[in-house]
Amino acid sequence: MKENFANIIAAVGEDLQRDGLRDTPARAAKAFEFLTRGYNQDIDEVVNGAIFESDNDEMVLVKDIEVYSLCEHHLLPFIGRCHVAYLPQGKVIGLSKIARIVDMYARRLQIQENMTKQIAETIMQVTGAKGVGVVLEAKHLCMMMRGVEKQNSMMTTSMMLGAFREGHATRSEFLHLIR
């Protein structure tokens, strides 16, 4: 990866021997490995057994989880926040694990629409919940820095599964709580 970053820097006409760029290919490779570390994670590692028995059957919501991801089309960041809720059915997941699941998918080359679905389906799968709702709001630098250059645009995606899809009241409660 280091060599590839060196080639990109040289291709834009820069001098790789210049003081500020001498170590940039190595730093960029290290940063890119960090930004895409989700490829080296799996759900069992992320959850790490943090599923607990519970008789709670009311909505559990974690909102405003910071999201940093890379657009798979331009390799530019999109940045935002994710709201995740589920209706437990005998089991709850450790609070930090929800944010870790969001990060696992965010730290891959990604499109927001797919990431929203992946998060919802994974939460549903690992918790056995009656339903899951995920709303993801993000600003995409591929729209802000290039192309149409729209600085204030925000993309919102949602995925509702189980009781969140079937029950209007559950969906409404979730959407009310995240506003």
- The computed structural class is alpha+beta
Strand order within the widest beta sheet? 5-2-3-6-7
* Number of structurally distinct domains: 2
| Major beta sheet summary | 5 strands, mixed
Radius of gyration: 19 Å
Question: How confident overall, as mean pLDDT?
Answer: 97
Summed up, the helix count is: 8
Task: State the CATH topology of the largest domain.
Answer: GTP Cyclohydrolase I, domain 2
What fraction strand? 25-35%
As a percent range, the share of helical residues equals 40-55%
**Quantity of strands, as a count:** 7
Low-pLDDT stretches: none
The CATH class of the largest domain is identified as: Alpha Beta
Global geometry: elongated
CATH homologous superfamily identity of the largest domain? GTP cyclohydrolase I, C-terminal domain/NADPH-dependent 7-cyano-7-deazaguanine reductase, N-terminal domain
Series of secondary-structure elements, N-terminal to C-terminal = HHHEEEEHEHEHEHH
The CATH architecture of the largest domain can be given as 2-Layer Sandwich
Straight-line distance between termini: 42 Å
